[in-house]
Amino acid sequence: MSAMTSGQTVETVGAVTGTGTTDDAGRQRAPWSEVWRIGRVRMRVEVLQLTRNTGLLIYTFALPVVMLLLFGSIFRGKIAGTDATYQQVYATGMIGMCVINGALQNLAYQVATERHTRALKRLRSTPMPAVSYFLGKVASVLAATLAQVAVMLTVGVAVMGLRLPTSPGPWLTFTWVLLLGCTACSLLGIGLSGLIRSENGSAVVWLPIMVLQFISGVFIVFSTLPKPVQEIGAVFPVKWLCQGMRSVFLPDSFKYSEPAGSWEHGRLALVLTAWCVVGLVMCLKTFTWRGRDDG
Amino acid sequence: MTTALRVKGLRKNYGDAAALDGVDLDVAAGEIFALLGPNGAGKSTAVEILEGLRSRDGGEVSVLGVDPAAADYRWRARIGVVLQEARDFTMLRVGEAVRQFGAYYPTHRDPDEVIAAVGLTEQTRTLTSRLSGGQRRRLDVALGIVGGPELLFLDEPTTGFDPAARRQFWEMIRSLRTAGTTILLTTHYLDEAEALADRVGVLAKGRLVEVASPERLGGRDHAQAIVTWDEDGRRCEERTAEPTRFIAELSTLFRGEIPGLSVVRPSLEDIYLGLIGSQETGSPEAGPQETAKPEGSAR
Q: What is the annotated localization of this protein (chain B) (predicted)?
């Protein structure tokens, strides 16, 4: 067996460290090129694992379609005083639901499970940077959401008369809103995983998630919510994600029904970016690699 | 001889209980060192502190010249860690898992070569969840060595192996040593420590009670041989420093073949049980191995 000699390993590691920064404890941080390189490895692995989880895949894809068909057949026609149909509004709400399910519910549970099975401890013993791990998780949520949205929109167009934007502008908005929204929610989900202490403890995240769905305008037209509820909802990223999606898929005139009377793209970008930063700091500060039952 | 690992006065408390109570240890580069001890003796705690996965409450630790408590990714690239049994990433195939872990390191060994080294070439495309216990453990080792570590930690690597699998595994570990890897091993199996380790340390109640080569542990090399034989329907036993002379005399007595003759030195297990037994009772003389046995007591 030809093992690599230890001398070689040391030299190469030394060569990579040149551009890294140092933290307060004198530890050298991996350079961003390394974080990104390993992050891409994690992204591939996460998406691969996702595609092999058949049970979860079926549930994941069926849920938004079934919900859209249910809501779309119960509530019909135009929303009073606007050109938008209920089906259109619910289609955008379902995108919010996909992100909540993927990022907050599934991801929080998944990370807690990885902690419980000591997968995280094993990763911790390698040079893989934490941020690379987070990147992989964000990518898996993004990939799942994109696939869900594609299936849901196809069904929406086919059976519910949903019309998709034809100009590039709205699709550009769709891209950055989804990217920022998924990143913010995924980081929150990773942070939330710390609340799930045992293998069967995922119930603690259901209730807040349920509440968040209602106050963010996922199931109920946001502008019809009471003002105080709207204000609480506006603190969290999902409300903004849904608002961004309405700006993509609803007639432009609908913006007058929004609380601010406009789509507020600037503010929307600001809030979602702030949540990304808050989420990342929270993950870096509170993320633990070891489970509670593990000493 | 360079030192791979140096520990002085290592302490770790869980609540009021001291899990590690002043452990001193030196492991030389290129050595296989086995840490023995009963469950709860602090083996895993000690190893996880050395791996940089757990904090300590006192003492000095230097692993590859670095304090693991302040270790960064460069240091982690130089060590390999095989934790106690884990069942993770069940959705990946063997080849995918090894390639993935290799990619975490700035430089790594050829994944196919590593898979071959642990004898899993035929399972390269098998999902990790479909592996047998022994195969899964060999995969764990593959993930630990794919980064080409200078120092490899193996925490109870062969628990649940059948004897043949264990021997294959030992061969693999020996080939790593030949390639210059330092190995710190914890195990429950005395035969494993004897077969692999250059030196063994016995940890009991958070203290390292003895460190020696397997041949010399607990004065084993000076211990008297025990000669047993059958006589008048009884099993007889004699402890002697000169077994050859004693057997020659016996042979004269029996005029030839001695019925049921056996000559044994105390096994590593006898010595080990004596060491941890004396820890439990607090007095080295009170260990069960040291009590004088009347003639005829069966071994």
A: Cell membrane
Asked if the Cβ–Cβ distance from B181 to A6 is below 8 Å, we say: yes
Q: What is the pLDDT along chain A (295 residues), one digit of tens a residue?
A: 344 433 333 333 333 344 557 766 667 888 999 999 999 999 999 999 999 988 888 888 888 889 888 888 888 888 877 888 888 888 888 888 888 888 888 899 899 989 888 899 999 999 999 999 999 999 999 999 999 999 988 988 888 777 889 999 999 999 999 999 999 999 999 998 888 877 666 777 888 888 998 999 888 888 889 999 999 999 999 999 999 999 999 888 888 888 888 899 999 999 999 999 999 998 988 888 887 666 5
User: How far is CA A277 from its chain centroid?
Assistant: 14
CA distance A97 to chain B (A): 26
- Beta carbons of A189 and A212 less than 8 angstroms apart: no
Contact A49 B89 (CB under 8 A): yes
Which residue of chain B is at minimal alpha-carbon distance from A51?
B91
In a domain, A262, yes or no: yes
pTM: 0.83
- Is B91–A53 a contact, with Cβ atoms under 8 angstroms apart? yes
Task: Provide the ipTM.
Answer: 0.83
Number of domains in chain A: 1
Residue in A258, A206, A204, A207 with CA at minimum distance from that of residue A234: A258
Cα A210 from chain centroid? 16
Q: Cβ contacts (< 8 Å) between B145 and chain A: which residues?
A: 3
Amino acid at B33: F
Give the integer Cα–Cα distance in Å for A64 and A79: 21
The domains found in chain B, sorted by start residue, are 3-217 (3.40.50.300), 219-286 (no CATH)
A56 in contact with B, Cβ within 8 Å: no
Closest residue in chain A to residue B179, using alpha carbons only: A3
For residue B53, give the chain A residue with the closest CA.
Answer: A125
